[in-house]
Amino acid sequence: MALRRSLRLPITLAIVMIVLLVVLTVGWVLMAVFGTGGNAANAGLYWTLLPVGTTFIALLLVGVVIYLVLSIKAINLGRRQSNFIDSVTHELKSPIASMKLYLQTLNRRHVSQQEQVGFYRFMLEDIERLDHLINQMLDAGQMETGRVDGEVTDVPMADLLRECTESVCLSYRVPVSTVRLDLQPCVVPARRADLEMVFRNLIDNAVKYAGSQPEVEVALRAADGDYTVTIISDNGRGIPHKLRRKIFGRFVRLGLELEREKPGTGLGLYIVRTLVRRLRGQIKVRDRENGSGTVFEVQLPGAPAAQQENEHCEDCERLSRFNAASDARPLNGTDESLSSTNH
């Protein structure tokens, strides 16, 4: 209720100001019209002041509307930041408390070798969870500064998607068969780290928000026009149509933070959209055709791997012809110089 009241005050104030400005505008127009009829000598002055005053009042009205929009955006940003703080606090506190419990148990009690191995594995998973959270926040910070480090190379997308799938399935302790892959060999010119962030986040969300019996599909194909299409779908609840544009904002998560069942910071899709735009690509969201679920479609500049290999072979062939011609010229020049010397 407190969050709703925070919006009620600026909206009510803006509506009152808009109504007052409308009344002022109507009164100004009526006063000017009646003034011209009652005083013919000053009619020209009234007709001059009428559009000037009306323009200023209209500008005030536009300013009030802009103020209302900016106020609502600022309040919504405050809500998202509050949700982000709650989420990060929970994400940091849970693994720390877990590791503390394991360490206290190992320190105060005698446990078997097998139990020690299990404790160490759980603590390592908690550390990896913290590492993933910190890296995600650092990546979001780099998105803001616009820093780009690393060399652009032709990245084999099929191999990258398999690696991301195996990593996500391992972190959620689900079989790799949970994610069904249908991959056509393609390459995308980009930084490998950027592509890993994009598709790891998307596959992570698909597995995280899938149904009780998770079904995730990842398809990769080359399309006409020198670009590749990667489709990631799940069988979760889906995303309401009116919220599909908002989910790519910073700190945006659906619902209240303390009522959610799944962990997260609201930065994953923001990072995905920013990187896809930086790579001159597009990302789309739609419903699953059969049953409930969400489909993310990522289009990136690229080409089939076979085409890249053919272009590489053609370049190698041209290079070999050039080298052969270059090798032939020095031999002729050497023969001529030798013959002239002997002469």
What does this entry look like structurally?
It is a single chain. This protein is an alpha+beta fold. The chain has three domains: 2-86; 89-145, Helix Hairpins (Orthogonal Bundle), CATH 1.10.287; 153-305, Histidine kinase-like ATPase, C-terminal domain (Heat Shock Protein 90). It has seven helices and eight strands. The protein has helices spanning 2-38, 43-108, 113-145, 157-172, 192-208, 268-278, 305-342; strands spanning 153-156, 179-183, 186-190, 216-223, 227-233, 282-287, 294-301, 303-304. The strands form two sheets. The protein has a five-stranded mixed beta sheet, covered by helices on one side. A hairpin with a 6-residue loop joins strand 6 and strand 7. The chain is elongated and about 105 Å long. The model is unreliable at 1-5, 256-260, 308-316 and 328-343 (pLDDT under 50).
Order of helices and strands: HHHEHEEHEEHEEEH
Mean pLDDT: 76
Number of strands: 8
Strand content: 5-15%
| Poorly predicted spans | 1-5, 256-260, 308-316, 328-343
**How many domains?**
3
Give me the number of helical elements.
7
Backbone CA Rg: 32 Å
Strand order of the largest sheet: 2-4-5-7-6
CATH T-level fold name of the largest domain? Heat Shock Protein 90
Distance between the termini: 106 Å
* CATH class annotation of the largest domain: Alpha Beta
Secondary structure category: alpha+beta
